[in-house]
Specification:
342 residues; alpha/beta; TIM Barrel; 2 domains; three-stranded parallel sheet; 14 helices; globular
């Protein structure tokens, strides 16, 4: 008979009880802390009475979510926290917005808050400090704001794991963006970029030059234009969510193959669409780039389960389409752990 520590027994019993009562999904087992157990300690002996196999609750499959926001589309911090727990996320990277400015790079205010009311550096930092066991954070600023580099450096010195999400109306190879890449190189952190044709980070067709110029900087691609261009036949860049079969060899496919410092953030509807539009291609794509792809949710719903939760849908698609369990674990955990040094 296996002997378990009191801490493990706490987790087993409380999850058994709440699962039995239908309160939460078993995947939330990793998120239950001692205070929740104590709050539910009246159910302790009832849990033992269930006589459930402890091993069923000890499988350790953590998930790192590299792309989430505070204040997302009006969602409260408490709702976001519950959402992450409901999805079974064990570590979340909070990506802040830059400061609100009426600049061309923010579409004169339209794109403030990453265009979704996302919180800034101070908010993300404070929340992560309060929940160190589950959250960490990035650093962001409007690239052509005169104080951008000092602001980014302030949070990098505090421990930010990434610069991003960079979602601004700028040329990807502009002098302002190059300063950010140089800062990322100095602090050995990745840069996460939102690619959206004629809207954010212009010049995707030229970005390979930046990958060559900054080989020590790990770049993470995200969003519509990045994922649309897995397809060699994607010629109309105005189409942001293409459907149908994918022909390998698009810009994104080649960047991931040809440059060791190019990675892919699978978050958002665009990341999910890239898999579901052609599942046969997705299986080969995940296999081909298994060391370069990272799970992110970028999901603004308030529940964390069901059809309305795109983040949960992306996890399900990864589990369904990963050719092996090893690849699945790389995408959901190991790649991010290594890249962000978590």
């Amino acid at each position: 008979m296996a002997i378990y520590s009191w801490k493990v027994i706490e987790r087993i019993v409380f999850i058994a009880v709440i699962k039995y009562l239908g309160y939460v999904n078993v995947d939330m087992k990793k998120q239950i802390s001692r205070r929740y157990f104590i709050a539910g300690s009246g159910a302790l002996f009832a849990g033992f009475a269930l006589n459930l196999d402890a091993s069923a609750f000890l499988a350790d499959e953590p998930i790192i979510d590299i792309h989430q926001h505070t204040d997302y589309a009006g969602r409260t911090q408490e709702q976001m926290h519950a959402h992450q727990r409901a999805m079974g996320i064990t570590t979340t990277i909070l990506l802040p917005a830059g400061r609100p400015l009426s600049y061309g790079s923010t579409h004169y205010g339209v794109s403030n808050g990453l265009q979704v009311k996302a919180g800034g550096n101070e908010i993300c930092y404070a929340f992560a400090q309060q929940h160190k066991d589950e959250f960490t954070y990035g650093a962001c600023e409007v690239p052509d704001f005169p104080g951008a580099i000092p602001e980014l450096e302030k949070y990098l010195k505090l421990g930010a794991k990434v610069i991003g999400e960079l979602k601004f109306n700028v040329e990807c190879d502009s002098p302002e963006m190059r300063k950010i890449y140089e800062l990322a190189q100095a602090y050995n952190v990745p840069v996460l970029m939102h690619w959206q044709y004629n809207m954010y980070n212009r010049g995707y067709d030229r970005f390979h030059k930046m990958l060559k110029k900054y080989p020590k900087v790990n770049f993470i691609g995200h969003s519509q234009t990045f994922w649309a261009n897995i397809d060699k036949n994607h010629t109309d860049q105005n189409v942001l969510y293409p459907k149908g079969k994918v022909t390998p060899g698009g810009w994104t496919d080649r960047l991931l193959s040809d440059y060791p410092n190019m990675y892919g953030d699978m978050s958002g509807g665009s990341g999910l669409n890239s898999m579901t539009r052609d599942e046969d291609h997705a299986r080969e794509f995940l296999k081909r780039h298994q060391d370069k792809l990272l799970y992110g949710s970028d999901c603004d719903d308030k529940v964390g389960t069901g059809a309305a939760c795109q983040g949960a849908g992306t996890i399900a698609a990864i589990k369904k389409l990963s050719p092996t369990k090893e690849i699945e674990r790389k995408l959901l955990y190991h790649n991010a752990k290594k890249l962000f040094r978590l």
